[in-house]
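=== Per-residue structure ===
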Amino acid sequence: MRHWCRQPLTCNVLLYRFVLSSFGVDWSRHRLNCSSISVLIISRRDYVTHARNPTAVVRRKIANEPQLEAALRTRNHNFRIRSARLERLTLRQQLLLVASSDVVVAMHGAGLTHAFFLPAKSGLVEMVPGRLAAGNRHFQAIARWRHIEYERWTSQRPEDDSPETNYSTYVPPDIIDKLVKRVTQKMCTQTRF
């Protein structure tokens, strides 16, 4: 079987450009500005995702999202913090949002596939409930393929993402703040060609 692309990095860039252009998203416009970092928190809330989920219960929610957002906002005056519920947006709006972000912070879930559409010199902070920790490295692979900075936090609390917590996970703002800063520092000190 012949592979349509022999240079994976080139294929990733071509696919990235093709999809964004197909939705009218100008992939060439965004430039990293280290004095004004755009941080996107992908929010998860209960909603009917499909017919197999009539109870509308969504797993892997951030239990203390307002505190996390407030901590990032007050500790990082050069960060522009946004929070978005992707299910409320069209696909084009989702792509516009991600393509204009420098760092995405989110719980492990399908919405993180959008990391593929982060601009060059960007970062991803993935938060994972302890129950999912082993073997779930999909989004780390996407970050590696796109050559974006990646950090991961895994909950050590057994009660997280369980019926007792309404399938939410407590996320320590101090630790996530450090991971976002680590990703940002790597983004702003590396030069890629």
Notes: The chain has one domain: 8-189.
